[in-house]
Amino acid sequence: MPRSTTPGQSPDAAVAGESADSTRRRIVAAAKEEFARHGIAGARVDRIAKQARTSKERVYAYFRSKEALYAHVSERELTALIEATQLDPADLPGYAGILFDHFTAHPDHYRLITWGRLELDESAADLTAPLQATITRKLDQLRDAQHRGLLDPAWDPVDVLALINQIATTWAGQPEIGAAAEDQAADPSTAARRAALVTAVERLFPRTN
Fold this sequence. Notes:
Elements: H1 20-42, H2 45-51, H3 56-62, H4 66-84, H5 92-105, H6 107-119, H7 129-147, H8 157-168, H9 170-173, H10 175-184, H11 190-204
């Protein structure tokens, strides 16, 4: 059962030498790892508490439920993703490369998003609202690029964005092929995988000078 603290009292007030902020950061970090690995339904608060070196009661003191904790972690991760992957409509291959770099450096971001897609229902639409707003903004950028002659107007912007995102996350979403590439690819390096997807996007949506 979720627990609460005395009004006005920090959950860590009785713990000498430890700040509430420090405990909260550890909980969020542990929860991010737990949700990325096990999803929402499979995550366990007791494992999060153990990893964060605290108790389940203190986890619930900060977050009223496992779902509320996921919502917090998801919002943080989506904000980081949005800030790190700004779209330049004049350089869509470069944008694909940025996405590839981000998910290569932060595979937990991709897993968190995927779990959310699988497990969240329409009642949790508020959790994805920032991402939907970002998608709308990027579509507006693509339409503007078409009006300015930077992008072929024959393309529907939603198709452009969907194709680029799919190509850019090819390796994040297919780890089994990534593993095969280590032995089977002519060049097994991450740089080669990045170059291939950037080239694919370049052929579809050439850079404009």
